[in-house]
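Bump. Still looking for IS3 family transposase structure tokens.
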Amino acid sequence: MLDRGTYLASVSTMYRVLRARGLVRERRAQARHEAKKKPHLVARSPNEVWSWDITRLPSIERGKYFDLYVMIDIFSRCVVHWEVHVRESGELAKQFIENCIRANGGLAPRTIHSDRGTSMTSKSVASLLSDLDIIKSHSRPRVSNDNPYSEANFKTMKYCPVFPEVFGSAQDARSFCHRFFDYYNHRHYHSGIGLHTPFTVHIGTAQAIQDKRQDTIEEFRVANPQRFTRRPSLPKLPTEAWINEPSDDDGLTSSSDEEEAA
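Sorry for the wait, here they are.
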């Protein structure tokens, strides 16, 4: 209009008028995504909640990795099953979950939790879980704390002193994982489960071991009373395992809160 010899208002005034009429905004259709819900999962015995994830194992070839799939029971911390593949896909993830249930004697969990990777959210996995009547649960985007048991398991493996810097082949990776997970399940005394091994908690023999440990301590205490000012106690076996135990901030009440209220 200035070029035609007419002046109405400054540019800033024109934008102010347009904003007042709702004309300065994105006119294209915008996708709307609801906020991802914070998962709250609890297991009070083995085979209630499983968690799985995929981590990369570096190869000797620059830029090439092997994919390690691991399923863990969050109550017992037992690695139910693991597999090493040269790629990641929804179909492999589906077969992996089927193999996990088969390796667990055909017992399936109530819930399977994972992050939001493409394999975890694939149609093939969703269809399988639906067919098996298993509840699927996912972490919030970019929130690693929503999958703490799988993350902790990977950290234990990769901080292991014998963890290789690189693997020569997929078979090398499988060989290492076979040794590591055998150790982890059967000889690793886990602080989160009362210094028992995951396998004994998973199959239900940990309580008998706990009783035997307590008898050993009591026998020593009776024989050496001068060593003690109070009766020693063992680390407790778990009664429940949470992913995001509810707090007052969540507006939910945990089981322990309910018991106290009762």
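Helices lie at 11-20, 90-103, 123-131, 148-158, 170-186, 198-203, 206-223, 255-261.

Edit: fixed formatting.
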